[in-house]
Design goal:
Blueprint: H1 2-19, H2 21-40, H3 46-53, H4 57-85, H5 87-107, H6 111-139, H7 143-174, H8 179-182, H9 184-198, E1 202-203, H10 212-233, H11 241-263, H12 277-307, H13 312-359, H14 369-397, H15 403-433, H16 445-451, H17 455-465, H18 467-502, E2 523-524
Antiparallel strand pairs: 1-2
Helix pairs in contact: 2-6, 2-7, 2-9, 4-5, 4-6, 4-10, 4-15, 5-6, 5-9, 6-15, 7-13, 7-14, 10-11, 10-15, 12-13, 12-14, 12-15, 12-18, 13-14, 13-18, 15-18, 16-17, 17-18
Length: 536
């Protein structure tokens, strides 16, 4: 009798999970929206935070950077932990921690407390991000439906990144700076009970003990690598101790982590996934796409504000078409993937993005709204097409039992690509910009050297000099910045074309019949142990 009842209950749960999978997607998208918002919403609040808490220069840097730094370093740890103890469990714990940390950040009365709260937000984000993708992989076993779900998921990510600064600006006009964190709390209070009720639990096959040492090595190694890359992006010398030390330590730890995983019978991350061309190529494409996107967005924002003289709000509105185009690409991505296949889709996305970047080299010292609109629309559509195809291929290629680890690898690649992009393209920009200010007539060598650090600093020096010398320096700085922008765009186009060549290793067609492979079984949670297994 009890066995019959249990079987009936499992059948009802299985049917309910199928009927509500799109509701599950909504819950997962809300999770992603919160994490994406928190990555950008603080940017507009930095002046208010500085005025209220009076942080030092180093403290201010950590207030901004500690969230993405901690989040990136812990993705593999929590992604693989979810495979072991249950992805829903890790996600719900991440919800709770994110809500508590948001309250602590909003009420922080010192820079140190805000840094600590932001670090806890990073921990919560690292628990949420890979769990959303791995649960999505479980809930949508059919690849065609999963592609549509990933498209919606990626469109929500684009919305969150764009809405963050706009929402932060609105809140700052009406409330104090802590309100940018308080918006997370009501959403988390809703997400926790709904997630507990609706989200399915799953985990990978628990073969052998969880490699705690390996997880800590990966976390520390990624922390060092991301910190070193951020130092490069912040203008630190590559050979300086603040850059070289974390890079070398991070690289050594990651090398030791890889060797350890290769030797273990039951590794934390199955590195054999990288032997699959579709998986390794997808990861490489994510890195290159993010490398181009983040560096270009940063430089484009500087161009719009400092060269064209637009306000921050006008700058955000000019960049909005990029986000709208990215949303559109995410929503039509599933149909494109079915029609053209991963190889053509990702390769074409890189090529469209490269064409957009080359188009933007026509930007000069005067405003050309039509050119910027066309370039940003192509840029957003091409990059999102690339990222969508790469993410979908990577997640579909990974065994279901390794879904959390695969999602963590994808998100880590995303974060590393973003950091490397700021460092690399920023360095190219500086190398092309600074020489144009070395010999401005009438400007002392010390002032020329200071102006060569950035366009904003050049404007400050020009204002201090005043008169004809200041005007000459200001004009030279604008021309040098535009020249540096053109060089940076061409370098970025070359990297994007390299990505297009790399994408030729992806499968030609979208294979919707995933064969069962050893070790790829998905293990349901104990409460659903007698139900059907989910496999892709």
């Amino acid at each position: 009798m009890s066995g019959t009842t249990t079987a009936d209950t499992c059948r009802r749960r299985e049917a309910g999970a199928g009927a509500n999978r799109w509701v599950v997607l909504v819950v997962l998208c809300v999770s992603l929206l919160l994490v994406a918002l928190d990555a950008t919403v603080l940017h507009v609040a930095v002046p208010a935070v500085t005025e209220d808490l009076k942080p030092g220069a180093i403290e201010l840097l950590w207030i901004v950077d500690v969230y993405p730094l901690v989040c990136a370093s812990l993705l593999i740890l929590f992604g693989t932990l979810g495979d072991r103890i249950g992805r829903r469990r890790v996600l719900l714990l991440g919800y709770a921690l994110f809500g508590v940390a948001s309250g602590a950040a909003a009420l922080a009365d010192s820079a140190e407390l805000l840094i600590g709260a932001r670090a806890l937000l990073g921990v919560g984000g690292a628990m949420i991000m890979p769990a959303t993708l791995s649960i999505l992989r479980q809930v949508f076993p059919d690849r065609r439906e999963r592609a549509l779900a990933i498209g919606i998921w990626s469109a929500v990510a684009a919305v969150g990144a764009a809405v963050g600064p706009l929402l932060g600006g609105f809140l700052l006009e009406h409330f104090w700076w802590g309100s940018v964190f308080l918006i997370n709390i009501p959403l988390m209070l809703v997400s926790l009970p709904i997630g507990r009720l609706l989200l399915p639990e799953s985990r990978g096959a628990r073969n052998g003990p969880w490699d705690v040492t390996g997880a800590l090595m990966a976390a520390a190694g990624l922390f060092g690598l991301v910190l070193g890359v951020k130092q490069l992006g912040g203008g630190e010398a590559p050979s300086g101790p603040l850059t070289l030390t974390p890079l070398l330590l991070g690289a050594a730890l990651m090398f030791g982590f890889i060797r350890r995983q290769r030797r273990r019978a039951h590794p934390l991350v199955d590195l054999r996934m990288f032997s699959r061309p579709a998986f390794s190529t997808s990861v490489g494409c994510i890195v290159l796409a993010m490398l181009a996107l983040v560096g270009l967005e940063l430089i484009a924002a500087q161009y719009l504000q400092l060269v064209l003289g637009l306000s921050p709000l006008a700058t955000g509105l000019r960049l909005l078409p990029l986000t709208i185009a990215a949303m559109a690409a995410g929503l039509v991505g599933a149909r494109m993937l079915r029609r053209f296949g991963p190889r053509v889709m990702v390769c074409s996305g890189f090529c469209v993005t490269a064409a957009a970047v080359v188009t933007l080299t026509a930007m000069g010292g005067n405003d050309n709204a039509g050119l910027l609109l066309a370039g940003f629309v192509l840029l957003g559509f091409g990059l999102e097409t690339t990222l969508f195809g790469a993410y979908e291929s990577m997640l579909s290629e990974a065994p279901p039992a390794q879904a959390g680890g695969a999602a963590a690898i994808g998100e880590t690649s995303y974060q590393l690509g973003a950091g490397i992009g700021i460092a690399l393209l920023g360095s190219v920009m500086n190398a092309a910009y600074a020489p144009g200010l070395s010999s401005v007539p009438g400007v002392p060598a010390g002032d020329s050297a200071a102006a060569g650090h950035s366009l904003g600093e050049a404007y400050d020096v020009a204002a201090r000099l005043g008169g004809a010398r200041g005007a000459a320096l200001r004009h030279a700085a604008r021309d040098s910045f535009v020249h540096g922008l053109h060089v940076t765009l061409l370098v970025s186009a070359g990297l994007l074309l390299l990505g297009a060549v790399m994408a030729l290793r992806l499968p030609r067609i979208m294979d919707c019949e995933a064969p069962a492979t050893a070790g790829s079984a998905e293990v349901p949670a104990p409460r659903e142990a007698t139900g059907a297994r989910v496999s892709a």
